[in-house]
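Example (one chain per record):
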Amino acid sequence: MTAIQLGPFVLGWERFATLAAVGVFLIAAEIIARWGRVPTLSAWAGHAVLFGFIGARLGHVVQFPEVFLAEPWLIIAIWQGGFSPIGAALGAGLVTLHALYRGLAPVPAFGALWLGVMFWLVLTLDLADRPAIATPDISLPMLMGGGFAFADVPEQPMVINLWATWCPPCRRELPMLAEVAESRPDVTFLLASQGEAAETVRAHLDRTDISAAHIALDPESLLARHYATIGLPVTLFVARDGMLAHVHVGEISRAVLLREITALLR
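Predicted structure:
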């Protein structure tokens, strides 16, 4: 499973697992605090989550100064993803050290934390057991003419973006994806419109002045079915050997895109 749908919202499974584990941690801390009459425990848990979140975001921001100095407003675009586990650990760790110094009882505190971590591990077992997925043996028409045959792709990393003109997050990220695609000849980019006619896609690109160089047409949504994705947009990162390496569900930022490309090139 790569994602979960909650009403109109689609969350990547990793993001859902993290949010669910944080919820379990907070609930466990609140129950233990009330049952054991330890009010400081509940306050610590809330502060640990808050500063862990701030640390996670800032840790990601400092890794890509060229992106965020050019567009500082993207720092608050948390829906695009981009969080540092090390930054989260530092933020939550500093709060915890301060709370322990102020008298926080360590056993109930780490008991609540253990429950949250165990819940996260149970949910992410699905990711560890996910079978490897190779690129499909298909050919898609390109908007500019010709076709894109996966069997003929050079042995280099590939980024596949599944999008549609009716999808607002897709429209927001598409100009950035097209721009990065033009600047990275070391990576194969395929921006595949899902379930739309060529006229619809071409009209959108003409209105927004986006290059059609990497735009493919997937009118039957073959890629979405092959990779079993839910919702749009979805960005797939494929290693040199053609095996799926990472899935990003939802709008993607330039920083996250560059991070994942760097991981593929290692």
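Caption: The radius of gyration is 21 Å.
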